[in-house]
Design goal:
With about 260 residues, this protein is mainly alpha-helical. It contains eight helices and three strands; from the N terminus they run H-H-E-E-H-H-E-H-H-H-H. It has two domains: about 110 residues; about 150 residues, no CATH class. The chain has a three-stranded antiparallel β-sheet.
Length: about 260
């Protein structure tokens, strides 16, 4: 509850800053993030790691993913202008953590070996980076729209220059695609049958997401794709990736259980 309260307080502070058209204090944002992440970790660890194995329930994984996303953004924001992403991340993290506490189910515990843990961690890191890239794409779309319609005032003034935002977007996208590649490769190596009935949708959609992101990166490098063209491809890859893991997991745990 303390972690959730800190996330919500941080979100309220950022939203207030935007409404008042002033830059948020980086030290305050960092303090909110570090405090909330520490408490989030203390709350999540015993729910994930249990004596019988790992509890990789739907909301537990979402909560862990948001923890990783927040950590990556926090570390990156020390050198790059990514702190504006917390305006999305803080409220979603609060909801994710609350749902993991409310819906905790010990029957979802599974035993996994070290190889599978490595695959799971790579997957979560890949998803986390690509979610960050998607949030960056949303901000880019907003920035592009405002500049195109000659509204360079209000909240847009709080964002870094468009070229900086776009460069960050493709840097994060490249890192996410590399980790997604490793995740898919380790899946083929460590999982006996990735095309088994309960995994086939996840595998096919993950490969589709990888292809979409690969086309986007190729188009940017070779054809110079940027702006709304790049944003549309990024959102398409994100949709496929979310359906691959969270969509499949939701169906298996809630609709078919």
């Amino acid at each position: 509850m303390a972690a959730i309260a800190l996330y919500l307080c941080g979100a309220a502070y950022l939203i207030t800053s935007v409404l008042q058209k002033r830059s948020a204090n980086h030290q305050w944002i960092t303090a909110f993030a570090i405090s909330a992440l520490g408490l989030h970790a203390l709350a999540t660890y015993p729910m994930l790691f249990q004596s019988q194995g790992l509890n990789l329930g739907f909301f537990n994984v979402i909560s862990l993913t948001f923890w990783v996303i927040n950590l990556l953004v926090l570390l990156s924001s020390l050198k790059k202008p990514l702190h504006t992403l917390f305006i999305f991340l803080f409220p979603f993290s609060a909801v994710a953590l609350l749902m993991s506490v409310i819906s905790h189910d010990e029957s979802l515990v599974t035993q996994v070996n070290g190889e599978m843990i490595a695959h799971i961690l790579l997957s979560i890191l890949a998803y986390s980076l690509l979610i960050i890239a998607t949030l960056q794409a949303i901000l880019l779309a907003y920035q592009n729209y405002q500049l195109k319609h000659k509204h360079p005032s209000g909240p847009i003034r709080l964002l870094p220059p468009l070229q900086t935002m776009e460069a960050l977007f493709f840097e994060i996208l490249w890192a996410g695609e590399v980790l997604l590649t490793l995740s898919i490769v380790t899946g083929f190596i460590f999982i006996d049958d990735l095309f088994a009935q309960h995994l086939v949708h996840k595998t096919a959609l993950s490969i589709l997401a990888w292809v979409i992101y690969a086309i986007l990166l190729w188009g940017h490098t070779v054809r110079g794709w940027r702006g709304f063209m790049a944003i549309r491809w990024a959102l398409g890859g994100f949709t496929a990736l979310m359906l691959a893991y969270f969509g499949s997991k939701f169906v298996l745990e809630f609709l078919l259980s």
